[in-house]
């Protein structure tokens, strides 16, 4: 008899039936509070379902075809085109499997993330996405469900894991700027919880390699945030001749602001973002960036869900970023 949830495996009604020593139909009657079942048996079934971590799916109860798998994609901000591109990759991969994807936007808010985790178990068969909550919290809310975490490292053993490694790409970006004569290269990092990002550490390491000083400021992850942060940075450090940013959205705002302040991009001021989004081709000059294959991130997440649903924990997937030179650097 199973003693508890099996890591990485979705608990089914048949699992509950086998553990409780009853038929599939008896479990269905107990869970749906139907008649023709005695009180003792019903309670045994309910206790077994709770112990195993069984979560009934609204989709499995009829919102979509019963033979279809539904995946919840949890992202912090749909307005950020990075997450839109990741979602597009996941949707394409899911369509090839004839699966359904439900997208949840947590607005980069911890309370909203908890609320989403609280309801997601009854709506989907598996979860992929970006989470700020610790593993034990995610596990508590998604017990028995396959979960793939994106963009984090050293997650719990029952989770799928996709890492984004931009270290070589950031080093290549700084090396390129240094080779073109830039010596005052700043960084606009994100302002999430006022904690430096891993991209900040990559920037600092790369700057040390070239014996260059660091100049860092925080920026909200938006075009307007990039504009405001760039204005403040250039007021404090007018000697800057290049900027590297946490992501492309911030970079586009920074580039707009630098040009408003009379800087010629890239003649006397270079700009390099991070993500390599398609939107970078829509600005003038086109934005150079440390590029992530965003669609591959989404596709890999769906592939890992498939492995978890089959009872196998996938190997950690690492998506490496590379330098993409366009017109801004």
Automatic annotation (TrEMBL):
Q: Which residues form the HTH lacI-type domain?
A: 11-65
What does the UniProt keyword field contain?
DNA-binding, Transcription, Transcription regulation
Source organism superkingdom: Bacteria
Single annotated GO MF: DNA-binding transcription factor activity
- Matches recorded under PANTHER family: LACI-RELATED TRANSCRIPTIONAL REPRESSOR (PTHR30146), TRANSCRIPTIONAL REGULATORY PROTEIN (PTHR30146:SF138)
UniProt-recorded name of the protein: Transcriptional regulator, LacI family
